[in-house]
Amino acid sequence: MKKLVFVFLISCLTFLSCSEDQDDKISQATITLSFSHHWDGNLVSNADFNTIKFTNAFGTQLSIERLRYLISKVTFYKTDGSKTELQGYNLVDVTNNQNLTFTSPTPIETGTYTNVSFTFGFNNEDNAGNYQDLNSASWNVPAALGGGYHYMQFDGKFINTSNQEQGFNYHAIRAAENPGDNPTFPQDTFFAVDLGAVTITNNTTFNIEMNIAEWFKNPNTWNLNELNQMLMPNADAQILMYENGLSVFSLKSIN
User: Fold this and answer.
1) Burial of 6 (0-12, 13-18, 19+ CB in 10 A)
2) Rounded to whole angstroms, how far apart are CA atoms 117 and 208?
3) Which end of the chain is less enclosed by CB atoms within 10 A, N or C?
4) Helices (H), ranges, the chain
């Protein structure tokens, strides 16, 4: 009799253990952010680069030769005020068709979240770090401008008022004044992109779009004839970029 009771207890414990394992599997989900790019609704890939084929809000014709940008701090917020932040960051490289997706290195709990967000660039604390992969990618910002890393490198050519092709370097960084040994920072120019509320029940992909045209039009209509190069040491230009960037990203769908 005692032997039967012992076997019964072992069976119960095994069943409960298996149930807990199943619950653990069900209560965790892998998260992926997938980035696509368009120009006012027309899909853009690196196949469209190096050709004058886009027209910005100012009416200037232009090409894209390089586009890459950094996203970090993917964060999930719960109704009780707690949050889960995914580790890592991602350098989206449209030019080389690399890192167009970012998958969480660890799963998160399933459930309802009041908001999901990511940061364009690095916040000031993360920007003070040292990242060997970003160093190798020549992503650094000169020390005279505060050091740290770019948020975006967007390069191309445009047709100027002399009807000639001219290069532009639309590079977003932390806005810095007084370049030199002691630069000052008038305001933050990284920003959070809110994707809204979501209920996670299984592995989930967020399909995120960048409308590249927005960098030139909302709320500041960008005149490349005036602002085309040497924008990194121009704090006012960096603030204009920050303002335009707030409308660049949108959530297309969730799978």
Assistant:
1) exposed
2) 11
3) N
4) 2-26, 124-127, 132-136, 235-245
The helix/strand/coil state of 114 is strand
Residue-range domain boundaries for the chain: 30-254
Neighbours of 97 (CB within 10 A): 10
Q: State pTM to two decimals.
A: 0.89
Instruction: Map tokens 């917020």 to a residue.
Output: 77
pLDDT per residue as tens digits for the range 208-245? 999 999 999 999 999 999 999 999 999 999 999 999 99
Cα 68 to its chain centre, rounded Å, is 10
Determine the Cα–Cα distance for residues 67 and 49; give it in Å rounded to an integer.
9
Q: What is the Cα–Cα distance from 67 to 154, expressed in whole angstroms?
A: 5
Q: How far apart are CA 113 and CA 52, in angstroms?
A: 43
CA distances from 109 to 113, 128, 196 (A): 10, 30, 17
* Closest to 238 (Cα-Cα) out of 167, 157, 141: 141
Q: Is 209 within 8 Å of 249 (Cβ atoms)?
A: yes
Segment 4-50, tens digit of pLDDT: 444 444 444 444 444 444 444 459 999 999 999 999 999 999 999 99
Q: How many CA atoms lie within 13 Å of 68's alpha carbon, on the beta-carbon side? A: 16
Q: How far from 140 is each of 130, 148, 159, 185, 220, CA to CA, in Å?
A: 10, 6, 29, 17, 27
Tell me the CA distances in angstroms from 156 to 52, 210, 228, 232, 237, one per residue in order.
Answer: 9, 17, 10, 16, 17
